[in-house]
Amino acid sequence: MNRCLSCHEPILIEISWSDLFTPRRQSSLCSECQDSLQIIRHDSICTICSRPLKEQTFACNDCLVWSEDPVYHDVLHQNRSLYVYNESLKELIKRFKYDRDYAIASCFSDRLTDALKIMQPYDLLVPIPIHEAKKMERTFNQTEALLEKANLPYQTFLSRMDNPGVSQAKKGKQERHSTLNPFFTLETFQHKTIILIDDLYTTGTTIRHAAYTLKQAGAGKVSSITIGR
Ligand SMILES: [Zn+2]
Ligand SMILES: [Zn+2]
Question: Which family would the database say this protein is a member of (predicted)?
Answer without folding.
Answer: Belongs to the ComF/GntX family.
